[in-house]
Specification:
Layout: H1 3-10, E1 31-33, E2 46-51, H2 55-70, E3 74-79, H3 83-92, E4 97-101, H4 102-114, H5 116-121, H6 129-140, E5 145-147, E6 157-162, H7 163-169, H8 174-179, E7 183-188, H9 199-206, E8 209-215, H10 221-228, E9 234-238, E10 249-252, E11 264-269, H11 270-273, H12 276-288, H13 291-302, H14 308-318
Parallel strand pairs: 2-3, 7-8, 7-9
Antiparallel strand pairs: 1-3, 4-11, 5-11, 6-9, 6-10
Helix pairs in contact: 2-12, 2-14, 4-6
Length: 324
């Protein structure tokens, strides 16, 4: 599953377990050692870091694995391309650490604990990251999961226009677009028409005049090309999309906080990986990582074909988070 597909479901508010918050495909048996298989500095025990299999998840898993290896643990990365599989594995201790997204996981557990219908009526995630993480902790702790602090890096739904369109109409924010009274067509998934964080939210929160939805998918090359060509004016993508510049597109700021707080955070098995020492190691990554960093890491892997492990190592070294 791609990063944008994850966001299409999660941040658009589809709260069924098999749709919004589960990745596509089955479980992969791929398991690889973190940091190129280097021997750890000390013997503090083995840890398995989970990855959902898309570019950003792979990079985040490598960041976690390598910083934990630098702290003295033996680490491996296991790819399980389905949250319905890797979340129970995390509860059981088969996986010790997973990079997650606050709002996405909160609503996944909300649906798992309370049922999809009730979760849809009573969502626990919001644009407030503190409140969202608190709700996530409340759902996670009884399941043996420990939610570590969220950082500034966030991967959430976002809307982009061409740089030319933005300059011509003096647009920097979604509020600017609403105030401009421009009629726009959105390149997105067809569910955008009914999901509260897409067309209905743009209309209600920003007063944007949505002419219709062009069902080309969330952040797909076809969707971005349609906006570049002027067929559509707005594309639904994510804040960590590394290819916007290739299409001459720029994001409009979600200045009224329509989208949920999908900040990146580590979630660990409390029994096997809940120590303060592990939290401190992972916290180094959380405090350093920004949304712009994620964009650049995604670009290195997707555009420059760097291996996730190599991109992660270069980043950690550049920030002084691991030793050479």
């Amino acid at each position: 599953m791609s990063r944008t597909s994850r966001m299409a479901g999660a941040a658009l508010g589809v709260l069924v377990l098999t749709g919004a918050l589960a990745a596509c495909g089955g479980e992969s048996l791929e398991e690889r050692s973190g940091d190129g298989g280097r021997t750890p500095a000390g013997g503090k025990g083995a840890l398995v870091v989970g990855s959902a299999g898309f570019t950003e998840a792979n990079v985040l898993a490598e960041l976690y694995a390598q910083v934990l290896r630098d702290a003295g643990h033996t680490t491996s990365v296991k790819t399980v391309e389905n949250r319905e599989l890797y979340e129970p594995s995390l509860e059981k201790g088969e996986i010790d650490v997973v990079p997650e997204y606050a709002a996405t996981l909160a609503e996944f557990l909300n649906a798992k604990v309370n049922g999809a219908e009730r979760a849809a009526r009573r969502p626990v995630a919001s644009s407030d990251v503190t409140a969202t993480v608190a709700a996530l902790e409340k759902l996670a702790e009884p399941r043996g999961l420990k939610v570590l602090p969220a950082g500034a890096a966030v991967d959430q739904n976002a809307f982009a226009v061409t740089a030319e369109f933005a300059a011509k109409n003096k647009l920097k924010t979604l509020s600017d677009l609403g105030a401009a009274k421009l009629r726009v067509r959105i390149a997105a998934g067809d569910e955008c028409e009914i999901r509260p964080f897409c067309a209905p939210g743009l209309k209600k929160t920003y007063g944007i005049d949505v002419a219709g939805i062009d069902p080309k998918g969330v952040g797909t090359p076809q969707a971005k090309q349609a906006v570049k060509d002027g067929i559509d004016q707005l594309v639904l993508t994510t804040t960590t999309d590394a290819t916007l510049g290739n299409f001459g597109l720029v994001l409009l700021e979600d200045d009224k906080k329509l989208q949920n707080a999908d900040n990146v955070l580590p979630v660990v098995n409390a029994k096997d990986a809940g120590s303060a020492e592990i939290a401190a190691a992972l916290g180094k990554v959380t405090r350093a990582l920004t949304t712009a960093d994620l964009v650049e890491l995604n670009r290195k892997v997707d555009a420059e074909r760097a291996k996730p492990a190599d991109a992660a190592r270069a980043y950690l070294l550049s920030k002084g988070l691991i030793g050479k």
